[in-house]
Model the fold of this input.
Amino acid sequence: MKKLRSGVGVFVSGGVSILLLLALLVVFGVLPVKTHQTTVYAPGSSGSTTTAALTTSGSLTASQIYQKYSAGVVEVLATYSSGGQDLFGMPSGPSQALGSGFVVSNDGYILTNAHVVTDNGQAANSVSVVFKGAASQTKTVTAKVVGVDQTSDVALLKIDPSSAGKLDPLVLGDSSKVQVGEPVVAIGNPLGFDFSLTEGVVSATNRNLQSPNGSTISNGIQTDAAINEGNSGGPLIDSSGRVIGINEQIASQSGGNQGLGFAVPIDTAKNAMTQLEQTGTVKYAWLGIAGQTITPDVAKTLNLKAAQGVLVAQVTSGSPAAKAGITGGQTQVVLQNQQWVTGGDIITAINGEPLSSMDALQAAISTHKPGDVVTLSVISGSSTKNVQVTLGVRPQTF
Done:
């Protein structure tokens, strides 16, 4: 998996009025689209109803997808109390951010991005969602934030179904089966133009995205469907009408769409939403090391015993890795202006699968739950061994 090299920012639409747009946060780099993620994949809630919504096994046109599923897409309006001052030194009033979301259950659950309903860790004072009606009619409903997961950039919202009328949940697909080249559409509220559809293809899979808290979101989906400010939290839908991702960020040198949009894979969102519905928080598996990616050139220069894998630089005291006897390095070396910590163990594989990078190790750990046991192939000194590690719960500070 190739990690994106550009910087990260967030797209938010809003201001004093819901139709004004916030200034673009970053001029260059990867710009996460301001989105609120609310997920409903709740076992026993409305899964059967949601699945039944898909009545055709064939491919749908973009027009058919819009006609069939746009009613399940919403605007997400998050209101923040400012507490700041305007240009004249006077207290500034509240501000609003606009993103997108989509209904996932007849019980009233909605998925969106975490960064749509939070701003630099600050939770919105209030959240409402806007449903599309006939012609230009809309209906605004108050929403409750069930939970927010900054690590996956997913948020789960809940509305009272009786206040919204008939709900149209979208069908959640399987992002592990997504293929490059397949057609997709994005529905959302780009630049405040509500309930817009854009069309494209899956440009790449297995992209590493950066979450609002700096964590890596593995297996991101890249698309050339136009995504702009206000699209965040909206669905990326395949030709069968299933949601395969939540539109989350773009890569841009101008601040606008350049055909490089990215979505949180729906499998990641499902895991987050299930835990958010049950407990309001999400727990992740944790190994407890800091490591560096080994390449053949680095291995040769540093005289390492593996041409690829992860060089363990540091092991957190009391972590699962520490309890399993994995050790970090002691000697600092500068190689091509990059600092390396040598002398530690080298992890070459997890559960028999060779590791090409630290990102690959992080992605593999992210597919597990706390309490799972994984087998690491480790070179320690002159010996090679398999080490079993019982994964723990990742602390909030990691």
Remarks:
- Confidence is low (pLDDT under 50) at residues 1-56.
